[in-house]
């Protein structure tokens, strides 16, 4: 390992940028790029901090959820995602909007025991000490109990030669990872004192006690002049995602386009949502689509259910300035409401994708919105982008070479 890397974390941000410049031969312009995008709060959040990486933020419009209108901040680098969510939300709003019930919001802390001779005897003993175990957990985080939250119950599962004691914890308005881990470690210490051998004590991100559902009903007439045909195609694509993991993966990627963007904008841990969602998608042993669509003679019915353990306080939420701003934009006040909105965004994202696949194909709408990014990519100036996109939209085929030629023609070369 190069000597300069040892102790890197002890340097100031400016010293780190200078050292990186020297060791990795950055130009003066490149190091100025590092220096141009820093902030104090970011330097306090991660290790070996150098600079901020900017990802665009937009808002998805037209959302009506449980009778309320929402403007949803979304952070994404992918063109057409926000347009798609807004488009679908506009269609759904014409028939009352999304319905997303308030769901239970408990996280699961896993304490895994090993070298257990008799599972049933161990299970009986642990359950007979449930009150004590719950108290140990709550004593480790008294503020949760004071708010009426905290550890509520436990369950025991046999995992081959291991035994998992699982705490079900109401984490209030937070996502709760730290609370769950603190409580799990307190119970681990107590069990060690009782002579048990503990392999691990940590939350699970398969948050099956924090499932959120969103549904919508759309008159097929609202899907355009071929609404009935489009609705049937959407239902067929949905069925395909239930029977084929290859299709289900892309179906769910489309859903996560919206979910990740809304989760990031809300300051929550999108990796936790991603891992939990995909684990939930394979709950019955086969990976399937998280959203489903069925069609009656007049209505298209959509539903999505996935684990959404998100919070409106705690973690980076209180640190990242734009998260507070996004809470003002969205007017979301509680973790439960946030989960309802995010699930609805996921269902909207899926509707837009399947509607496009069922009609003009994904490229028509998607690519048109890619032209802006393509224009920047080939060096168009801000004042040239609109005209270049207009010219590209008129062509039957567009690629980077064609865009470069069009730009040259625009510049009179
Ligand atoms: P359109 O029919 O041309 O839209 O669709 P429109 O002009 O009729 O506008 C309708 C509404 O859409 C607008 O309402 C906006 O809300 C929104 P209005 O403001 O006019 O009252 N909208 C826009 N919002 C912001 N910026 C825009 C914009 N254009 C329309 N520029 C659209 C165009 C792109 C919306 C449509 O073609 C679409 O939804 N396509 C799907 C695109 C998509 O799914 N993108 C995600 C990336 S592709 C992917 O990775 C997922 C996938 O692989 C998943 C899967 O396979 O299942 C496809």
Automatic annotation (TrEMBL):
<dbReference type="InterPro" id="IPR009029">
    <property type="entry name" value="HMG_CoA_Rdtase_sub-bd_dom_sf"/>
</dbReference>
<dbReference type="Pfam" id="PF00368">
    <property type="entry name" value="HMG-CoA_red"/>
</dbReference>
<dbReference type="InterPro" id="IPR004553">
    <property type="entry name" value="HMG_CoA_Rdtase_bac-typ"/>
</dbReference>
<comment type="pathway">
    <text>Metabolic intermediate metabolism; (R)-mevalonate degradation; (S)-3-hydroxy-3-methylglutaryl-CoA from (R)-mevalonate: step 1/1.</text>
</comment>
<protein>
    <recommendedName>
        <fullName>3-hydroxy-3-methylglutaryl coenzyme A reductase</fullName>
        <ecNumber>1.1.1.88</ecNumber>
    </recommendedName>
</protein>
<keyword id="KW-0560">Oxidoreductase</keyword>
<keyword id="KW-0520">NAD</keyword>
<dbReference type="GO" id="GO:0015936">
    <property type="term" value="P:coenzyme A metabolic process"/>
</dbReference>
<dbReference type="GO" id="GO:0004420">
    <property type="term" value="F:hydroxymethylglutaryl-CoA reductase (NADPH) activity"/>
</dbReference>
<dbReference type="GO" id="GO:0140643">
    <property type="term" value="F:hydroxymethylglutaryl-CoA reductase (NADH) activity"/>
</dbReference>
<dbReference type="InterPro" id="IPR023074">
    <property type="entry name" value="HMG_CoA_Rdtase_cat_sf"/>
</dbReference>
<comment type="similarity">
    <text>Belongs to the HMG-CoA reductase family.</text>
</comment>
<dbReference type="InterPro" id="IPR002202">
    <property type="entry name" value="HMG_CoA_Rdtase"/>
</dbReference>
<dbReference type="InterPro" id="IPR009023">
    <property type="entry name" value="HMG_CoA_Rdtase_NAD(P)-bd_sf"/>
</dbReference>
């Amino acid at each position: 390992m190069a000597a300069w890397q040892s102790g890197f974390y002890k340097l100031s941000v400016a010293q780190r940028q200078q050292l990186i410049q020297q060791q990795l031969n950055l130009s003066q312009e490149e190091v100025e790029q590092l220096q141009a995008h820093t902030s104090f709060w970011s330097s306090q959040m991660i290790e070996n901090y150098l600079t901020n990486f900017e990802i665009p933020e937009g808002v998805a419009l037209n959302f009506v959820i449980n009778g309320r209108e929402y403007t949803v901040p979304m952070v994404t680098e992918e063109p057409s995602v926000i347009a798609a969510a807004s488009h679908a939300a506009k269609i759904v709003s014409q028939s009352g909007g999304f319905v997303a019930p308030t769901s239970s919001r408990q996280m699961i802390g896993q304490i895994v025991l090993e070298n257990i001779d008799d599972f049933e005897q161990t299970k009986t003993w642990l359950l007979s000490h449930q009150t004590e175990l719950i108290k140990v957990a709550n004593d480790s985080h008294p503020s949760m109990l004071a708010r009426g939250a905290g550890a509520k119950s436990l369950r025991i599962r046999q995992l081959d030669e291991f035994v998992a004691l699982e705490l079900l914890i109401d984490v209030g308005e937070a996502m709760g990872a730290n609370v769950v881990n603190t409580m799990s470690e307190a119970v681990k210490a107590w069990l060690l004192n009782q002579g048990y051998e503990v392999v691990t004590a940590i939350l699970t991100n398969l948050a099956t006690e924090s499932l959120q559902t969103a549904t919508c009903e759309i008159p097929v007439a609202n899907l355009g002049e071929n609404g009935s045909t489009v609705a049937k195609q959407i239902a067929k694509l949905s069925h395909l995602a239930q029977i084929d993991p290859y299709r289900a993966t892309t179906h769910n990627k489309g859903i996560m386009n919206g979910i990740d963007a809304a989760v990031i904008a809300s300051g929550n841990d999108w990796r936790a949502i991603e891992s939990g969602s995909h684990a939930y998608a394979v709950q019955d042993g086969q990976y399937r689509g998280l959203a489903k669509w069925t069609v009656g003679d007049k209505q298209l019915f959509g539903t999505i259910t996935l684990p959404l353990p998100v919070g409106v306080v705690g973690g980076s939420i209180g640190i990242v300035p734009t998260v507070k701003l996004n809470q003002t934009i969205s007017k979301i006040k509680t973790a439960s409401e946030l989960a309802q909105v995010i699930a609805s965004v996921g269902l909207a994202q899926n509707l837009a994708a399947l509607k496009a696949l069922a009609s003009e194909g994904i490229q028509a709408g998607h690519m048109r919105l890619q032209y802006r990014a393509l224009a920047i990519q080939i060096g168009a100036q801000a004042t040239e982008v609109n005209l270049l996109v207009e010219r590209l939209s008129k062509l039957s085929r567009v690629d980077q070479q064609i865009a470069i030629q069009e730009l040259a023609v625009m510049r009179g070369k």
